[in-house]
Amino acid sequence: MQDSVKKYIGLALAVCVLVLSGCAKVISDPLVRQSVPKVEFADLLDDPEKFKGRTVIYGGTIINVSAEGSRNLLEVLQRPLDYYYEPEINDQSQGRFLVTVDQFLDPDIYKKNRRITIAGEVKGSETGRIGDSSYQYPVLIQKEDHLWPVTSSYNKGPRFNIGFGVFGSF
Fold it and tell me: CA–CA separation, 35 vs 29, rounded Å?
């Protein structure tokens, strides 16, 4: 009897570990703690110099990856983040930001339209162009990033049906 109880307890613990590991955040705890209090993206966009040196966590969709001299540069369209720091798939954005990275970023992996979460230090701002317009980009120095799997919004969320017979369901 005790052996079967031990098996069930072991199985329950294993299930808990698997479930909880699926809920792990994608940015390390030390960087999450450094990013408190949170800097709203709109505030950073208004005055990047005010937040110079602060650690922030933002995410969005990669617009462009380029190499400029000894640095790689990501241009990201900001998107709201959910509880797990995953950029939401919607049409909401407060603007764009640049991320400097001191390592090679393969453009076939860090490609356009890929969702990314970045923890970085605010470096300041740079003036760039979007089409014919001048744009003031906040610039981050990458500390950590997480690329999200390529998925479609159709597959997002639980899928289940409850039905009775052939003609009805709710």
Answer: 10
Distance of CA 131 to the CA centre of its chain: 26
Q: Exposed, middle or buried by CB within 10 Å (0-12, 13-18, 19+), for 60? A: buried
pLDDT surpassing 90 at residue 7: no
**Residue 81: HSE in the Cβ half-sphere, 13 Å Cα cutoff:** 22
Mean pLDDT of 131-149: 97
pLDDT at position 104 is: 87
The answer, yes or no, to whether residue 84 has pLDDT greater than 80, is yes
Q: What is the CA 52 to chain-centroid distance, rounded?
A: 21
Q: Give the other-Cβ count within 10 Å of 43's Cβ.
A: 13
For residue 44, give the H/E element and its range: helix 41-46
Domains and CATH numbers, the chain: 25-152 (2.40.50.140)
Token pair belonging to 99: 């991320």
